[in-house]
Amino acid sequence: MGNARTGWLCAGWPAGVYDPRMFPLRFLPALLTVVLLLIGFAAEARTVYRCVRNGTVSLSTAPEPGSKCEAKKIDDDAANVPNLWGSMGVFSGTLYQREQDGQLVYGTRKLPGATVYLKFTVATPPGEPAHPGLGKVGKPRLDMYAKQFKAAARVTGVEDAWLRSIAHAESGFDAKALSPKGAQGVMQLMPDISKQYGVVDPYSSVQSINAGAKHLKSLFKRYHNDLVLVAAAYNAGIGAVTRYKGVPPYAETQAYVEKVRALHQRYRQALGTAPLRPADSTAVESKAAVPAK
């Protein structure tokens, strides 16, 4: 086989051994492509399957039985490949080899009959950080205004879990809530914000949720989907975020941002929309990551 990548991989890299100087495994999809070239399946060399099952994701050179798989085409340039994992931080996993339909198949999920081909560590974009010490934020309450949140999310494109997190942190889902500063209703909107979005009755759960979702949509657009800045602006106002060029140094706002982000993770988990996890893997501290060069 006259492919330069094949010779490069064969030189000093026996099966089961990974040298990060030779192959930065943030490009694991490219590794699967090279493996295909090694074993002679040039016709399929540019297809990798991203397979999802039970909240976990894996990459494979063929569709996995029992998983929902999507074919991904990889460019001929194996050093320039898309991120098929998603934001999962740094983790260690295993590339397995198995026989399927009379052919050798390679993938990152351990299936019946699979044997270890090599171990790897891969650094993906960072996921959402954990928030220890916030155990008192409370359990997700999926029974509160479920239809209203779902409808508002569908209309505005703001994630259902995020809307619930804001309402949970702001009012505890109390439609009659009134803060000392004058914020009203489920989403605790100030009167000027309510007026901006056409709210007639600020204590109507439907009107409050719809207006809150529209306001959040505008904040996501303003802050380019930065959850931290969106939460800070919702709590302290756009002016404060602009003045301090980020999260204001208010203890209340800083605690609020942390609480909302922690609730967001819990609501995602409860609603089944939490980010996927890599199959058969172990999380690695970022300081142990393979340098992304």
Overview of the molecule:
The protein is of the alpha+beta class. It has helices spanning 4-10, 28-38, 146-156, 160-171, 191-196, 205-222, 227-236, 238-244, 251-271, and strands spanning 47-53, 56-60, 68-73, 90-100, 103-107, 115-123, 277-278, 282-283. The protein has a four-stranded mixed beta sheet. Strand 1 (47-53) and strand 2 (56-60) form a beta hairpin. Helix 3 runs parallel beside helix 6 and helix 4 (160-171) crosses helix 9 (251-271). It starts with a helix and ends in a 10-residue tail after the last strand. Mean pLDDT is 77; it is low at 1-27, 34-45, 127-135 and 286-293.
In a nutshell, what does this entry contain?
The protein is 35% helix and 16% strand. The chain has helices spanning 4-10, 28-38, 146-156, 160-171, 191-196, 205-222, 227-236, 238-244, 251-271; strands at 47-53, 56-60, 68-73, 90-100, 103-107, 115-123, 277-278, 282-283.
